[in-house]
Write a structure and sequence with these properties.
Layout (H helix, E strand, L loop, with lengths): L1 H8 L32 H22 L20 H12 L11 E7 L5 H12 L2 E4 H10 L6 H9 L6 H19 L3 E5 L5 H10 L5 E6 L2 H12 L9 H24 L3 E5 L4 H16 L4
Parallel strand pairs: 1-3, 1-4, 2-3, 4-5
Helix pairs in contact: 2-7, 4-11, 5-6, 5-7
The chain binds P1-(adenosine-5'-P5-(uridine-5')pentaphosphate and magnesium ion (MG).
Length: 299
């Protein structure tokens, strides 16, 4: 629905900012390296802000009239006495409630880690074994970028190539719509949100308007290893960001902007860290240990 509405809007594509930071050779991420990863111009900020407002209006509109899992409300004492008019108003009011989904009914695991850490690879294993729906924010953005007629195509392409973070309104709308689709199609209630949130404001907004996350799975990996993996994948992936220039920018943004998100979740005791510097099967063994405790058959 977001996509259809998007098409009808004819909104101008924002002139996107350029990345200004380059990666320094380093192995580990620490709290002492926080810097601004790009200084957008005033015009770009204005364009993004108006795009964000429009995207959110669409998101709210897209919720109207949809019956999906939401926070359970205690029945009002006078429920049986409500007149017809009041009863007609209720569904529309409920549809606008935020967060959109109840954390008691919908489980979200944020899967985070540097570029090439192995998030997508491990999510596919988890999808198979634990009945999760795997939603990669990067895949959803690439799909939107390639969709013929997308008003956001050029903007997304620029941000991805520069390793920058696409304005959250676009990503959150794509994620929420994909969650709804999966709920409608297969009554899905468990979601792996791969590669999102990458910025603190994204984390706060998603948890406010969509659903609070249950746990954060963090794949820890040295940059040198991730670099080798991405360059190897770049030989055949066709991804516009699997080249040395883009990879350096992606690393810098992860280090400076995305890693603090993991640190913030850590303070809430929500993070399960798994080292990725070993073969896929061995990494998965460690992931399973955490998931069996959290989501095993008896859970
Ligand atoms: N591989 C995996 N595990 C291995 C292992 N244990 N041993 C040996 N090899 C292993 O794996 C990468 C490669 O390594 C593969 O070839 C794999 O076989 C091998 P993969 O599972 O794909 O790693 P992953 O962590 O998913 O790497 P990816 O490149 O997808 O991570 P990114 O976070 O960089 O990419 P994403 O698609 O999430 O985002 C791309 C861009 O989209 C971002 O840079 C940003 O511009 C934009 N974006 C946003 O703006 N907002 C968002 O919310 C999300 C994305
Ligand atoms: Mg991935």
């Amino acid at each position: 629905m977001f996509r259809t509405t998007l098409l009808r809007q004819g909104m101008a594509v924002a002139k996107a900012p350029k990345a200004t930071t380059m990666a320094r050779p380093m192995r580990f991420y620490s709290t002492s390296q926080k810097k601004n990863s790009g200084a957008p111009s005033f015009a770009a900020m204005l364009a993004v802000a108006s795009m964000g407002f429009a995207a959110y209006s669409m998101l709210v509109k897209s919720r109207e009239g949809q019956a999906l899992p939401r926070r359970k409300q205690p029945a009002p004492v006078s429920e049986e006495k409500q007149d017809d008019k009041q009863q007609q108003q209720q569904p529309a009011e409920e549809a606008k409630r935020i967060p959109a989904f109840s954390p008691e009914e919908v489980t979200v695991v944020f899967v985070l880690g540097g570029p090439g850490a192995g998030k997508g690879t491990q999510c596919e294993n988890l999808k198979r074994d634990y009945g999760f729906v795997h939603l990669s924010a990067g895949d959803l953005l690439r799909e939107e970028q390639q969709r013929p007629g997308s008003k956001y195509g050029e903007l997304i392409k620029h941000y991805i190539r520069e390793g920058l973070i696409v304005p959250m309104e676009v990503t959150i709308a794509l994620l929420e719509n994909a969650m709804r689709e999966a709920m409608e199609k297969s009554k899905a209630t468990r979601f792996l949100i791969d590669g999102f949130p990458r910025k603190m404001d994204q984390a706060l907004k998603f948890e406010e308007v969509v659903v609070p996350s249950k746990v954060v799975l963090y794949f820890e990996c040295p940059e040198e290893i991730m670099l080798q993996r991405l360059l190897k994948r770049g030989e055949s992936s066709g991804r516009i960001d699997d080249n040395i220039e883009s990879i350096k920018k992606r690393f810098a943004v992860f280090r400076e902007t995305s890693f603090p998100v993991i640190e913030a979740f850590e303070k809430q005791n929500k993070v399960k860290t798994v080292s990725c510097n070993k073969p896929v099967d061995e990494v998965y063994k460690d992931v399973r240990e955490s998931f069996d405790k959290l989501f095993g058959e008896d859970k």
